[in-house]
TrEMBL record:
GO BP annotation list: small molecule metabolic process
Organism name: Halorubrum vacuolatum
Alphabetical list of InterPro entries matching this protein: ADH-like_C (IPR013149), ADH-like_N (IPR013154), ADH_Zn_CS (IPR002328), GroES-like_sf (IPR011032), NAD(P)-bd_dom_sf (IPR036291)
Protein name listed in UniProt: Glutathione-independent formaldehyde dehydrogenase
Domain of life of the organism encoding this protein: Archaea
Domain Alcohol dehydrogenase-like C-terminal: start-end pairs: 185-255
Record keywords, A-Z: Metal-binding, NAD, Oxidoreductase, Zinc
Amino acid sequence: MKAVVYQGPYEVAVEEVEDPELKHPNDVIVDITTSCICGSDLHMYEGRTAAEEGIVFGHENMGVVSEVGEAVSTLEEGDRVVMPFNVSCGFCQNCEEGFTGFCTNVNPGFAGGAYGYVAMGPYPGGQAEKLRVPYADHNALKLPEGREHEDAFALLADIFPTGWHGTRLADLQPGESVAVFGAGPVGLMAAYSAKIQGASEIYVVDQVPSRLEMAEENCDAHAIDFREGDPVEQIIDAHGGMVDKGVDAVGYQATDPADVDTDTEDYAYDPAKENPAIVLNNLIRVVRPTGQLGIPGLYVPEDPGAPDDMAAQGRLGIDFGKFFEKGLKCGTGQCNVKQYNRYLRDMIIEGRADPSWVVSHRVSLEEAPEMYEAFDAREEGVTKVLLEP
Ligand SMILES: NC(=O)c1ccc[n+]([C@@H]2O[C@H](COP(=O)([O-])OP(=O)(O)OC[C@H]3O[C@@H](n4cnc5c(N)ncnc54)[C@H](O)[C@@H]3O)[C@@H](O)[C@H]2O)c1
Ligand SMILES: [Zn+2]
Ligand SMILES: [Zn+2]
């Protein structure tokens, strides 16, 4: 079958690889109908992780079950399903308690597994024609048959639940104000989730105009362009004070607004302009004393391309004194997709949510190399790319 294979920094290719096979009676094979490119893939794509060439990318997968292992009891050939990006077992302590992003069985020596991701276990990704799904009864969420809501349902694999998770990590309550840093797919979904959950005011910070416009149009958010000045001061001026809650949807490869060349329209990440602690410190400044920060943006214990030696070991210059002084709280980590995907699916089915507005491109798998390049450059208008084999 064809699959998107990592070749080394800034290079992916669509290659012929072995078809997946049932390896365990609890597996199913899914014929992929949609697999998305994610900002998380870009950390590997840019050579900013320990990923080695040969990994088949793709952790946001949906499709139709084509082969069913003997021990699978709830799925049949022909079922339309979407898989959480997490691979999890369902019966370890973390899974039992709902923390399926931290499963201790699927990736021995580590808490958490995923498809097509460095250090997340031996699970090839789904930017391919087919995918093996382990512990399939647990890991596949059934969808209504047909093609309806294909874009919206594909987002249940990661970014809609992850954006939602960002607001839950911040313990957002109805009527509260929130600042979301990053208007990539995850930030946009966090802002959309905040709107659904009844936030009173939503601020979304980025520098890419088309992304900020999407936040205004679809999330009733106030757009804060960090090219126009310190985003924290802009929010405090507009809101008349600090906000109740904050979400980091950027992560460690954050651009330092102070280093941006505002004469160009280049929005690509550049290690020379990065400051891995800037978003965390801006959140510490902008959230009111006793407020809470949700941090779904990715941080890593090792960064081979870090701007300095400390950051290379995942050690960041965080303003912990201010954090303590303000009595702030925070939540971090991979999204436990299974905590939310069933409910978000039902909101889509009932017409109460439709996150598909975030999708900018649906293209064939063959176009993956060009689309990785464009999405990595944060090109205007390239917000969320869906691949179709
Ligand atoms: N916790 C999880 O389960 C989980 C799941 C998916 C993605 N993620 C992570 O979430 C983050 C966002 O993912 P994405 O797909 O939206 O990626 P993305 O790279 O497309 O979006 C990040 C956005 O942040 C903006 N940005 C950069 N520096 C900034 C700054 N200083 N202030 C404000 N905005 C800034 C960029 O312009 C970009 O639009 C990534 O780190 C990704 O790895 C985490
Ligand atoms: Zn993802
Ligand atoms: Zn488990």
